[in-house]
Amino acid sequence: MDAGRLPVFVYGTLRPGEANHGLLRGRTAAETPAVLSGALLYEGPGYPYAVDDPGGGEIHGELIDPLPQVYEAVLADLDRLEEYVPGAPGNLYERVAREVRPTSGRPRSAWVYFAAPATARVLRANGVPIRSGDWRR
């Protein structure tokens, strides 16, 4: 995959078998189990939030490689779903490039949707962490 086209790490409703995975169905070249370190997972209203946690923590999910011919369309659809607009102050999530470890293979840079700063502050203060790091558990 070209360096400007990162895979996407999904950890909630976009995972295979979950409610929003249909957005990806037939549009991926690979879906690989993976782990994101340095982050915590919090319960949300029917979906989880990832929050930076440089001191530890890890989140389990899948590394999604969109098909090259639909890459831009997939990323645009994911941005809409996650209510992310580059530079917008009211974003629900922020899309950030981070290193993710597939369960087999070497670490890769990937897009990760993290809770936007205002939401992350509320979650750190009052949120319910998902200690296993796996929203499915």
TrEMBL record:
Please name the InterPro entries in this protein's record. AIG2-like_dom, GGCT-like, GGCT-like_sf
Q: Which Pfam family is an annotated match for this chain, by its short name?
A: GGACT
Q: Name the source's superkingdom.
A: Bacteria
Q: Ranges for the Gamma-glutamylcyclotransferase AIG2-like domain?
A: 8-137
Name it.
Gamma-glutamylcyclotransferase
Provenance organism: Streptantibioticus rubrisoli
Please spell out the taxonomic lineage of the organism that makes this protein: Bacteria, Bacillati, Actinomycetota, Actinomycetes, Kitasatosporales
